[in-house]
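For reproducibility, we list the full input for the flavin-adenine dinucleotide complex.
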Amino acid sequence: MKPPPFEYHSPTSLAEALAVLADRTDAKPLAGGQSLIPAMNFRLAAPAALVDLNRIDQLAGITESEGRIRIGAMTRHRAVERDGRIAARAPLLAEAMPHIAHPQIRSRGTIGGSLAHADPAAELPAVMVALDATLVLQDGAGERRIPATEFFTGLFATALRPGELVTAVEVPALAPRTGWAFDEFSRRHGDYALVGVAVMLSLRGQGRCDRVRIALLSVGDGPVLAGSAMETLQGTRPTPEAIREAAERAAREDIAPPSDIHASESYRRQLVRVLTRRALTRAAARAAGARP
Ligand SMILES: Cc1cc2nc3c(=O)[nH]c(=O)nc-3n(C[C@H](O)[C@H](O)[C@H](O)COP(=O)(O)OP(=O)(O)OC[C@H]3O[C@@H](n4cnc5c(N)ncnc54)[C@H](O)[C@@H]3O)c2cc1C
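The corresponding predicted structure, in tokenized form, follows.
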């Protein structure tokens, strides 16, 4: 099928794009088009106008300053995957990127598009929640910043206001004695995951957990922060027993996963149990200085 007719705008500056979006409430931004165009072709989305962000150079690129890495919204997944600074300073993100779709899709898909789309099965929303990232949003009235935990508000829903764009996401650079791990299970590599988990774990003196963040994907309406599991590990040594208990609580208490044609609720809980245990074990070893 082909999409219904739409107006096409191709601004070359952010100001121009925001002006069109302010003017046309029935317009949608177009980034990599890897989700929006299929949705339009299936007539699940029918915006009257598209505001193509692809010619706005200022929205793409990766920079680092004051311990934070800023990734412009139009930075392609593939550019993030291949960036040396991301590998060194935000390795959780680097580890998750190859799980997103296939290289062809990663060559077009963008960070901002994936976050704005807020698919509950997408990797990046959970990774940003685990990293405690900040979304940078802008409309004609100015810029605002919002933590990833507050940005995702429901099924394909975000805190974006009409006419507002994601312009960047900022992630804290890896702190000392901090480990990370991303893991997921999908039926074929590149498919959306049945369950995924992103972990950040910092150790303090005597090897106790100082800060633990565990974010799960594909088990709710959006990324789920596994609060009970995090609480289990806080201030304790990440022994195999403690990790096993945290993973158990994640599976039993932190989620209300759907049963659908892809997997039953109980199967998803079992995947959370196993993947969380594996990811925490790897993150704890890395925090303690083991080689990745
Ligand atoms: C076969 C296939 C498999 C895939 N598998 C996966 C997968 O395993 N994991 C995964 O995470 N993704 C997967 N994707 C989706 C892919 O990662 C997309 O790149 C991503 O979902 C959307 O990014 P995009 O840049 O293409 O956005 P677009 O499709 O252009 O836009 C998506 C939505 O976000 C809005 N938008 C875009 N940019 C902005 C912005 N800067 N500010 C505000 N709103 C904006 C658009 O208006 C639209 O509503 C898959 C896609 C395909 C086609």
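The mean pLDDT is 96. The chain has twelve helices and 14 strands. Both points were considered when choosing residues for closer inspection.
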